[in-house]
């Protein structure tokens, strides 16, 4: 039987010397100091995380974790639950937004079924790590049993192990799960002690009545699981979801393996919050790809002290916002690696 003991194993520390070497190189490149703004600091950060003065993003791994949620029966989504498994098939056929972004970036894409309500059966590029046919409705019971939580966290860890084996400069976790904005909002509210209406948004596009049902479902769930709020692992078990726990597990495993991860939108952000609350040393390994349009994401980012790379009004999930940011991160690395120094170019006014 799987356990969560591995989540307490040591986490790597970023390489301060590689970061400092990258910072000094940035000062010598042919531009006024700081003029490339965050393209400079992102390259320096990636250098420290990858332990090399010239970071590279040649091998990007994207993993979409998919699962269903018992709370969907409360009428909190604009779409039916069947969309989760239908989208798993769409990922497998290469027709989803993240499929296009992965192809365009030359990134490898894997899908992990952590527990959609319907079993899609064997599909190319889809790993079955099913913990059940969706979680329990958390307005009535804990979302997961301890065994399911351990299995879901382990599914994330195993995805990182496969990524590492394939060679991985950067890990992107995406998610797919009808009703998971309700789950992410409940978890965020519990971990940040916020009111349900401060974190609930329209998700896939619920109307006013749907939003009211969502706020009410979160309110009832927080009341039922009140005692777990101070224990992030228990909050994740009671108020989380299979794909959210898998992503939290993946972030912890990335920090243990020394692989930087780019966090996607609101749902991945809630997983990041849970991972950081369980293991605060995970935080330096996380870059934040974008600010989602979903209500609540801005507060979540603020609580994590995170400044996202992009703000494009996206709210799709699947890892799409993080994947879009990879293009910018690659530009940061290319500038850092390819620009001439003042000395090389014979340009005056460089550092002494
Ligand atoms: O990533 C985000 O910020 C985001 C914001 C809104 C919706 N989503 C996606 O939409 C689905 C959840 O929306 P909902 O309305 O069913 O809770 C799920 O599959 C997510 O990937 C994702
Ligand atoms: C079609 C569709 C695609 C998605 N991708 C992520 N969440 C989604 C939700 C819906 C409804």
Summarize the structure.
The protein is an alpha/beta fold and 352 residues long.
List the helices and strands and how they pair.
Elements: H1 16-28, H2 38-50, E1 60-67, H3 82-93, H4 97-105, E2 108-115, E3 126-128, H5 146-166, E4 170-176, H6 180-192, H7 196-199, H8 208-224, H9 232-239, H10 242-257, E5 261-263, H11 266-278, E6 286-288, H12 297-303, H13 320-338, H14 342-345
Parallel strand pairs: 1-2, 1-4, 2-3, 4-5, 5-6
The structure holds nicotinate mononucleotide and 5,6-dimethylbenzimidazole.
Structural write-up:
This protein has 352 residues and is of the alpha/beta class. The protein has 14 helices and six strands. It has a six-stranded parallel beta sheet, with helices on both faces. The structure holds nicotinate mononucleotide (NCN) and 5,6-dimethylbenzimidazole (DMD). Nicotinate mononucleotide binds next to β4, α6 and α11. Catalyzes the synthesis of alpha-ribazole-5'-phosphate from nicotinate mononucleotide (NAMN) and 5,6-dimethylbenzimidazole (DMB). It catalyses: 5,6-dimethylbenzimidazole + nicotinate beta-D-ribonucleotide = alpha-ribazole 5'-phosphate + nicotinate + H(+).
Radius of gyration (Å): 20 Å
Q: Catalogue the unreliable spans.
A: none
CATH superfamily: Nicotinate-nucleotide-dimethylbenzimidazole phosphoribosyltransferase (CobT), large domain
Order of helices and strands: HHEHHEEHEHHHHHEHEHHH
**Termini separation:** 61 Å
CATH class: Alpha Beta
Strand order in the largest sheet: 3-2-1-4-5-6
Mean pLDDT: 98
The CATH topology is what? Rossmann fold
List the total number of helices. Answer: 14
Assign the CATH architecture: 3-Layer(aba) Sandwich
Portion in beta strands: 5-15%
Which ligands are bound? nicotinate mononucleotide, 5,6-dimethylbenzimidazole
Q: In one word, what is the shape?
A: globular
Structural class: alpha/beta
Largest sheet: 6 strands, parallel
Helix content range of the residues, please? 40-55%
């Amino acid at each position: 039987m799987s356990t969560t003991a591995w989540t307490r194993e040591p986490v790597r520390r970023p390489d301060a010397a590689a970061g400092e070497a990258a910072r000094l190189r940035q000062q010598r490149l042919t531009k006024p100091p700081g003029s490339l703004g965050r393209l400079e600091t992102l390259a320096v950060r990636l250098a420290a995380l990858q332990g090399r003065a010239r970071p590279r993003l040649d091998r990007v791994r994207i993993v979409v974790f998919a699962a269903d949620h018992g709370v969907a029966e409360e009428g909190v989504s604009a779409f039916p639950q069947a969309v989760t498994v239908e989208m798993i098939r769409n990922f497998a056929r290469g027709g989803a937004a993240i499929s296009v972004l992965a192809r365009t970036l030359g990134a490898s894409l894997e899908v992990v079924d952590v527990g959609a309500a319907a079993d899609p059966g064997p599909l190319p590029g889809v790993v079955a790590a099913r913990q059940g046919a969706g979680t329990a409705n958390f307005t009535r019971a804990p979302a997961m049993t301890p065994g399911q939580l351990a299995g879901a966290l382990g599914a994330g860890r195993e995805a990182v192990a496969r990524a590492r084996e394939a060679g991985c400069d950067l890990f992107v976790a995406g998610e797919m799960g009808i009703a998971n904005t309700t789950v992410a909002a409940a978890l965020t509210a519990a971990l940040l002690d916020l009111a349900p209406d401060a974190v609930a948004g329209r998700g896939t596009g619920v109307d006013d009545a749907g939003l009211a049902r969502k706020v009410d479902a979160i309110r009832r769930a927080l009341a039922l699981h009140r005692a777990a709020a101070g224990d992030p692992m228990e909050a994740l078990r009671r108020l989380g979801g299979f794909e959210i726990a898998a992503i939290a597990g993946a972030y912890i495993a990335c920090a243990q393996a020394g692989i930087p991860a780019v966090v996607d939108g609101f749902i991945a952000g809630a997983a990041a919050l849970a991972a950081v609350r369980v293991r605060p040393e995970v935080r330096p390994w996380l870059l934040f790809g974008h600010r989602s349009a979903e209500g609540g994401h801005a507060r979540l980012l603020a609580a994590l002290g995170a400044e996202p790379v992009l703000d494009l009004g996206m709210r799709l999930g699947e890892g799409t916002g993080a994947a879009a940011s990879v293009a910018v991160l690659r530009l940061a690395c290319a500038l850092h690696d390819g620009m001439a120094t003042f000395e090389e170019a014979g340009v005056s006014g460089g550092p002494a």
